[in-house]
């Protein structure tokens, strides 16, 4: 009787915390919804650059996304997720995976082989649950506000490719993880940490070269003033720039971005075509639509954005994030090693007494038992990320890009219909970057200090 009470208490504790966390997130989003509804005029800091029509469009866009986000959270994170936990859905999937493994000629007594089937089935069901929301978000919300550029065919192929690549990568990793836990002895978590660390570095290295081109078309940045200026900027910072690419992100979305890749040695910089004026094409290019023309950043503004991104590299933010991630992984695997033999965790999710599949133990511990810890760490990482963003802005400012960076931030905000006003609690919890007004104020304040 005591064991029964223990696993029930475990289940109800998990459900209560997840419900509490979800309700907090809904409350914070509702605070932002109130901002969308009540804020009707352009902030005085942006009145010279943002007209009322653009402000209204960004307000409605933000409101639509927030309302949709609340609906999705209630359906997925409250109704479906909690019902699945209470009804032992994950245990049912495991039992079905054993049957499937036996039916297709695998060894149903092998936890590794059944675990691989389990992951495939679980991920397939997860995609099916998520798909209606992806479709609505893409073809209703983004379409309504002019950001969706995907056809139905492109979307379907994209989802299929994404699922296949995900499974090709995930299933072998899961098999090795289970094997390491089985043979690793009491210190298996150290071997597990080492394996996952190596895989992480490997994926970071091969993703931009072999995986990203499966989803988007990359072209070398054309010769010209912008390319020369980027090379000069990289050279002045001793950034080991190898290649400069433009990714045709406009086939997927009208949103803009820029990033660099490569952990060691030569690196590559990737610019979204939507970041560049006229997508980096001549104004008379027949592929340009009227809505594409005049959008994007001028060369000096693109350089300011890259100065900010290279600031992350120069200031060691990339290395610091990797170190933090590795420490996090070690602590998670350590916690897993201490908890994964605790029987009530498995009974709490519906497994019969005595069954302790490693992969289910890992999911339950990482997603549910460590949920409070994950929440605290996520918030701490948000704080650190915002600090890094301010530091990268200051770095670009020291290089003389203060004015152009401010202009680029404003232009990207306008092109992406970003709403400039945020509830402070919502922003503090959700935004890994400071808001536009916060960044502009800091740029202005730091500029005065320098003078």
Automatic annotation (TrEMBL):
The keyword Zinc applies. The chain crosses the membrane at residues 12-30, 74-96, 108-128, 163-182, 188-210, 322-346, 358-381. Residues 32-217 form the CAAX prenyl protease 1 N-terminal domain. The active site is at residues 309, 393. Zn(2+) binds at residues 308, 312, 389. Residues 220-444 form the Peptidase M48 domain. Keywords: Endoplasmic reticulum, Hydrolase, Membrane, Metal-binding, Metalloprotease, Protease, Transmembrane, Transmembrane helix, Zinc. This is CAAX prenyl protease.
């Amino acid at each position: 009787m005591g064991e029964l009470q223990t696993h029930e208490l475990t289940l109800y504790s998990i459900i209560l915390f997840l419900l509490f966390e979800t309700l907090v997130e809904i409350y914070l989003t509702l605070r932002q919804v109130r901002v969308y509804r009540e804020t009707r005029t352009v902030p005085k800091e942006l009145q010279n650059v943002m007209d009322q029509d653009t402000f209204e469009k960004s307000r409605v866009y933000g409101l639509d996304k927030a309302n949709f986000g609340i609906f999705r959270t209630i359906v997925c994170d409250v109704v479906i997720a909690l019902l699945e936990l209470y009804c032992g859905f994950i245990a049912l999937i495991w039992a079905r995976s054993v049957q499937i493994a036996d039916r297709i000629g695998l060894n149903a007594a092998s936890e590794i082989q059944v675990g691989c089937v389990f992951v495939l089935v679980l991920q397939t069901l997860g995609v099916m649950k998520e798909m209606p929301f992806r479709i609505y978000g893409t073809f209703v919300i983004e379409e309504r506000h002019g950001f969706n550029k995907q056809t139905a065919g492109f979307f379907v192929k994209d989802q299929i490719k994404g699922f296949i690549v995900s499974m090709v990568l995930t299933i072998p990793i899961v098999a090795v993880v289970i094997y390491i836990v089985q043979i690793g002895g009491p210190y298996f978590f150290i071997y597990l940490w080492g394996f996952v660390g190596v895989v992480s570095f490997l994926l970071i290295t091969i993703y931009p070269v072999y995986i990203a081109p499966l989803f988007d078309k990359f072209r070398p940045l054309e010769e010209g003033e912008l390319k020369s200026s980027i090379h000069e900027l990289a050279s002045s910072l001793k950034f080991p720039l190898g290649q400069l690419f433009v990714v045709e992100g406009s086939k997927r979305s009208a949103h803009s971005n820029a990033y660099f890749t490569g952990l060691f040695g030569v690196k590559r910089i990737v610019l979204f075509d939507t970041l560049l004026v006229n997508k980096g094409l001549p104004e008379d290019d027949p592929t340009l639509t009227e809505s594409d023309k005049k959008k994007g950043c001028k060369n000096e503004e693109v350089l300011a954005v890259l100065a900010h991104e290279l600031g992350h590299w120069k200031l060691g933010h990339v290395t610091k994030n990797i170190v933090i991630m590795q420490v996090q992984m070690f602590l998670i695997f350590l916690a897993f090693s201490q908890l994964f033999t605790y029987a009530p965790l498995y009974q709490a999710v519906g497994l019969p007494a005595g069954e302790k599949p490693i992969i289910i133990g890992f999911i339950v511990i990482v997603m549910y038992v460590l949920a409070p810890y994950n929440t605290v760490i996520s918030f701490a990482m948000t704080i650190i990320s915002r600090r890094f963003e301010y530091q990268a802005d200051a770095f670009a400012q020291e290089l003389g890009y203060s004015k152009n960076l401010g202009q680029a931030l404003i232009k990207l905000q306008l092109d992406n219909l970003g709403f400039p006003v945020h509830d402070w609690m919502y922003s503090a919890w959700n935004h890994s970057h400071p808001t536009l007004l916060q960044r502009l104020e800091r740029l202005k304040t730091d500029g005065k200090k320098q003078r």
